[in-house]
Amino acid sequence: MAHPVSPLAPKTYPELPEVPGARFATAEAGIKYKNRTDVLLVALDPGTSVAGVFTRSKCPSAAVDWCRQNLGGGAARGLVVNSGNANAFTGSKGRESVQKTAEIAARALGCGTGEIFLASTGVIGEPLDASKFEGVLDNLAGRLVSSPWMDPAKAIMTTDTFPKVATATVEIDGVEVVISGIAKGSGMIAPDMATMLSFVFTDAAIAAPVLQSLLAEQVRPSFNSITVDSDTSTSDTLMAFATGKAAERGVAPIESVEDPRAAVFGEALGDVLYELAMLVVRDGEGATKFVTVNVEGATSDESAFRIAKSIADSPLVKTAIAGGDANWGRVVMAVGKAGEPADRDRLSIRFGDLVVAEQGERSPGYDEAATSAYMRQEDLEIGVALGLGEGRATVYTCDLTHGYIAINGDYRS
Amino acid sequence: MAHPVSPLAPKTYPELPEVPGARFATAEAGIKYKNRTDVLLVALDPGTSVAGVFTRSKCPSAAVDWCRQNLGGGAARGLVVNSGNANAFTGSKGRESVQKTAEIAARALGCGTGEIFLASTGVIGEPLDASKFEGVLDNLAGRLVSSPWMDPAKAIMTTDTFPKVATATVEIDGVEVVISGIAKGSGMIAPDMATMLSFVFTDAAIAAPVLQSLLAEQVRPSFNSITVDSDTSTSDTLMAFATGKAAERGVAPIESVEDPRAAVFGEALGDVLYELAMLVVRDGEGATKFVTVNVEGATSDESAFRIAKSIADSPLVKTAIAGGDANWGRVVMAVGKAGEPADRDRLSIRFGDLVVAEQGERSPGYDEAATSAYMRQEDLEIGVALGLGEGRATVYTCDLTHGYIAINGDYRS
């Protein structure tokens, strides 16, 4: 919280509606931070199905291991999230801590440990003392509420400078069902499966395998298409919980991905994930510019994605944007280093609508003044056309500034 | 030159001996910089063999294309290098500029254009007007000298804060032959074949194919094992020129890689390349720390290299080092994101001789004070042992500081 709020923070936040079947409470457990909430308990009614996607890191946190193991059961009754300590690379102590936390939560909620999901975010390598949760979770279970969702969003923040929430409603069987989500993330953002932490809740009735399939599909254009600093976390966790309470209002459960209602729900879920992912980029550590990188004309969508990621991850591109410098030569460099098919002499590059380079050289119509004026805007687009095929991809990122260095030069201490 | 000299700059420079058969001159052509030399002409005696390795960028500069094409001839008579303009992504204008520059140089030196090699470094995308070389190269050809080598090293600098030279002598057939090299490079350094620009000269008599083989072998542990910012240039060029003049002193030409003298020469060549590569890291944009990343116990050398590169390229690892923060959790993160085989619970990490983590958690003997004291040093080592196999690799890098942002936020303008 020591750092100023991102200039890219939204001016207003939506008020998230209650999600029938999901209640929560937050507390100050003093895990690392002082004078702010750092523990979140979400209680889910019986019948809640669950899905999740996690970091592809080879060194995942103890909580990620735990969630992966429990996901097979397909049912959730509780979610415990703490900030300030990632419980990652904490060895057998980490596994014991996770087990004990789940036991405390299961007792508090009256369910089995196999229905408890956990996430931790903060410093890596510091043992997390589960006894800190001992009195706290019982207390939280005694004061569960259905709103406001801003409270859970705040409790899971680390270097975030603003809370991240998004919501959508979707009509199924003529009944409105709710999808609401929260997220945290600011640095160590190059999700290879999900982002730091994000949790989405719905009262729709959806079988766990269907929910899993929809989540895996929608994570690609949202959380898997953002990067702040190319660093992938040990703790990336995105989970969706469907309480099924809408069934009481006449919505039949969605039991198959072939059910046409699955696609309708999936699209709304995608909208929520996309909004949350964009908020993570807008809170990228030190960010002053939001950048959309659009690549088209690649030999495949995968190739386009790797080229877009190469541009979005390039320190030289990101520092040029921070400096308001229309340095499209660095975009050429980043296309070239991606290792994907590219033909220098067919390549064209634009900033917004301004074509700066085409057919392998500076555009004849290049206008330095107009381009510089464009670069002073807060939301920028870099467009690259390769002229080779139909592959396209979009990646979202932010600039690289002194703020990033200041935040990360002394985060742990 | 506006930026202060790197604190990692060497305190003294070796005086490079003359290389019989190689003479040079430099000039101020005013390509971009004012009041400094920016053009180098090296004249090589008839009989000089040549070898080169270049960027793997898919968008190489016009000069790189030119050198690749001429390399087949195996013979060199002239090298022209300019700083201030990379002549990259300049389309047909770039090709014409290269052709014209070669013609001017060939005329000045009395040789064919196929024996002229070219390199350009500086801004990408700006057309390079070859007519600037018109009078200049003739003038340079008229005042060629054999020393001091510091002059060519200075003429090829861009954002470098100090010139880079290295030398070695090696005894072949009882006669001392000389190997001397120069390099430039500071940012956009993640060579995937060579570094920005480096040229090595020797009076040894070595057939071009042998020289090429030795150069390709020695580039891996030197220029291909360094990274400043993970950005690979369009213009990376490393060339070696062997004038063969040592034959006049009784050294028989090396015609085959099986010749035992090839290995002796190769080792000395490797020493020069290694020294030059380390100087590039020490002049990394904004660098205040020199970092050696040693990875061992990987499933293969290639796997170890990719993990070491992942650590050395991580913005979060590099900012922690800048802040003197022994944040080994970020090293875990970087190992995990590399996508290579790793077992969290066998992993151990050390800073210098201080073991900070072992068997998947913080070391029982971890000493925060001692580790923090170590992190204040200028030359640091990060050691990672994976405990899986015999694969090992070393990558050299520097920290990521406010200086990098300051240098790159407005380089072009």
UniProtKB/TrEMBL annotation, chains A, B:
Its EC number is 2.3.1.35, 2.3.1.1. Belongs to the ArgJ family. This is Arginine biosynthesis bifunctional protein ArgJ. InterPro entries: Arg_biosynth_ArgJ, ArgJ-like_dom_sf, ArgJ_beta_C. It is found in: Cytoplasm. Its main location: cytoplasm. GO terms for cellular component: cytoplasm. The record marks A194, T195 as: Cleavage.
